[in-house]
Amino acid sequence: MSESKKSPTSGENGEDTGKTQEPGQEKQAKRAKAKINLNRLEMPKQSPEVRRHNFDEVATGYTYEMAMEEARRCIQCKKRNCQAGCPVGIDIPDFIKQLQENDVEGASQVLKRKTSLPGICGRVCPQELQCEKACTLNKKGAPIAIGRLERYIADWERIEGTSSMPEIAPATGKKVAVVGTGPSGLTVAADLAVWGHQVTMFEALHVAGGVLMYGIPEFRLPKEVVQREVAYVKSLGVEIHLDTVIGINYSLDELLNGPYDAVYLATGAGLPMFLGVPGENLNMVYSANELLTRTNLMKGYLHPQYATPIKIGKRVAVIGGGNVAMDSARCSVRLGAREVNVIYRRTRAEMPARLEEVENAEEEGIHFHFLCAPIAFISDGRSNVAAMELIRMQLGEPDASGRRRPVPIPGSEYIMEIDTVAVSLGTSPNPLIASTTPDLETSRRGTVVVDELGKTSKARVWAGGDIVSGGATVISAMGEGRLAAVAMHRYLTE
Amino acid sequence: MFSIVEHETLAPQVHRMSVKAPIIAQKCKPGQFVILIVDERGERVPFTVSGWDPEAGTVDFVYVEVGDTTRQLGAMEVGDSLAHFVGPLGLPAQIDHYGHVLTVVSGYGVSAIVPILKALKERDNRITTILQAPDPQTAFGREPLAAVSDRLILAAGTQGENAATSATLPIRELLAEHPRKSIDRVVLMCSICLMRVVSEMTRPYDIKTMVHLTPLMVDGTGMCGACRLTVSGANRFACVHGPEFDGHKVQGWDVLMARRCTYADDSLLQQGFQCRGCSQW
Ligand SMILES: Cc1cc2nc3c(=O)[nH]c(=O)nc-3n(C[C@H](O)[C@H](O)[C@H](O)COP(=O)(O)OP(=O)(O)OC[C@H]3O[C@@H](n4cnc5c(N)ncnc54)[C@H](O)[C@@H]3O)c2cc1C
Ligand SMILES: Cc1cc2nc3c(=O)[nH]c(=O)nc-3n(C[C@H](O)[C@H](O)[C@H](O)COP(=O)(O)OP(=O)(O)OC[C@H]3O[C@@H](n4cnc5c(N)ncnc54)[C@H](O)[C@@H]3O)c2cc1C
Ligand code: FES
Known about the structure:
The complex is a heterodimer. By secondary structure, chain A is of the alpha/beta class. Chain A has helices at 22-34, 48-51, 64-72, 81-84, 92-100, 104-112, 118-124, 131-134, 146-160, 183-194, 211-214, 223-235, 252-257, 288-297, 323-334, 355-363, 432-435, 466-469, 474-493, and strands at 175-179, 198-202, 239-241, 262-265, 271-272, 285-287, 315-319, 339-344, 367-370, 372-379, 385-398, 404-408, 414-417, 420-423, 427-428, 461-463. Chain A is globular and about 65 Å long. Helices cover 24% and strands 32% of the residues of chain B.
């Protein structure tokens, strides 16, 4: 980000801003409609050749001029479909309106009404499936770049060093424990703190942020951005206890029998899944979680300034086709692998990763191998992985997820030489809390069972985010948090 | 921050540290471990708790200087603080009345096993302990060990000699008398090579043999899978399903040993760890 102009009170084009304009608005909107601008502004990016060698952010963000230009494309239509498409219901037309009036600070205030994590959401939300999909201009194929604008506003605030604070309701005297400091927990903590409750968060790791810190890499989501938003939540009066594992240091019942009136569980889905094929425990076969944790949380890419090492060979295979696989592959490139291969058992069309990230990976020279899956890993004779045996697949009938099921083609086995593997098949919830809380209902997949407002089977306990969904998105984790926070607030003030 | 309240040297490059951590001290059980981070740029490194005091709110562990973190610890003083300290992690060691328990310890295991033996003693077990050390002069921690053992055998080899040989001699003798003088259970907290060898020695006798495994760990809460191993055909995480496992059910010892040394290089302070049999050297 190079620009950081203060929001001027008068517009650049000499037009007046503020309330005096209201009567003319209608006309203005009509005029805008007449000549809709379909030139959706791209965000500047580091070139693939450069970014292959660093962990700096890939997309460098809009400048002030770009943000204003993009914001002005918004026709302020009456429908507010974009807002309906947002899982936390951000007042999108309103913050864009503030931008159109060159009032970035005002825009930030509008954002903060519904989200405490705009810098994060602006970067990692799948807007193409949510707000931007619903945007009226999407009918013409050029939705407003809502995510990029959201990011711009959050970055502007971060660089300016200001922070617009919401009004905090008088203390209710109620105490709430939030377990897990990922996006779901942070959302609940912020909401309840603003509504006057005393919130304490517990985090097993040594930093707050959940997957935002340990999973998603620096080049997609700078850790400074996450920590700034964590600090914002703290500034609302939320206390965070790090290095504290619920289920070990305190059981859920100890929290409920102790000072807390209610508990929100947001411990995510951290348990990595493996293929279960021979040789999977050979040396240099990583779970994606280990590779990403060493790299991002522990800053292995800065070793030896940071003490934790991360070893990557020359030819890497990443197994899987989701966001986690893309992140593992792109970290491997940056850690010096000569060749990185993504192995996915269906086709490009079925890949669960965001298209944008797949394209970024392709630009960075990552090879994609579709319709194949590993059936064994082969040792070099010294317990290191040296190759893997793959089998080709074809797509059969659709399965429960609606995607066509991959079916192995007999006799199609072949060998690929590799020296590092990142198994990235997805995760499931860590059973620690469930196993120490007999009366908490869980599903066969280990997820916590809740009603539509996030209430669990256990009195005074709500849950949301990946621990409930089994693995979804930042914004859905926040959306579930918002619903639960409302329900908890109702319970606490009844 | 977690302040260091005691720090003593037990032998060259072996120290005991006592850390103020009241919440952890409430919940420790024998055989569990903590993970510490020295400073904000530090690595997460696991250590077995060798003692704790719920009243004083302190947790102790004994460590051997092998690399960066343990060297850094060695230079710290009472009053200094550790950035992070989390635990107790892992499952506690299994404790019951078994009868005659044979235990083999070396390195930090000499101290880290003491809480386990104490608990076994409380369940009326008779305990024979074999302490393996490079030589009698550097053997530390003998007294606390003797206090919780009915019999203590010092197996001191000379440096450079195959580390496994000396402890295996008394074990062989004891096994020769089994079941006349029966061994009902074996608990091992020593080098991985020795745990592997002893597990194979007791297998023909079908004596339950528990090993305390220390694969590389990152988070220590079941999130990264770095510490995984195969036990009876299933994938197990040492940090949540262990660190104590049935040595006869552990599979793929070669891989386990190789993984332990993924990041090892010649900077290793304990040359003895570059074991001859290991594939990574
Ligand atoms: C590599 C990767 C890339 C991703 N990319 C995207 C993306 O681009 N866009 C997107 O929308 N989503 C993405 N996701 C998914 C998204 O990050 C998750 O859906 C979201 O973080 C879930 O939030 P959460 O709050 O439920 O849990 P988490 O973020 O998982 O946080 C849970 C927290 O609880 C802590 N915890 C666990 N157990 C305990 C305990 N017993 N006691 C105390 N604390 C505990 C954990 O340490 C963790 O900090 C990605 C996920 C990964 C792994
Ligand atoms: C559950 C658990 C409990 C533990 N308890 C203790 C304890 O109570 N006291 C203690 O001193 N240590 C204990 N350890 C081992 C300790 O965590 C490691 O020695 C750690 O690597 C030291 O960190 P470092 O940065 O000093 O050395 P590193 O830089 O990590 O060490 C350099 C290299 O030495 C190798 N190495 C380290 N230890 C051994 C070993 N024992 N055998 C063979 N190679 C080794 C590793 O490959 C490592 O890469 C435990 C480990 C685990 C998993
Ligand atoms: S150390 Fe990460 S799962 Fe055990």
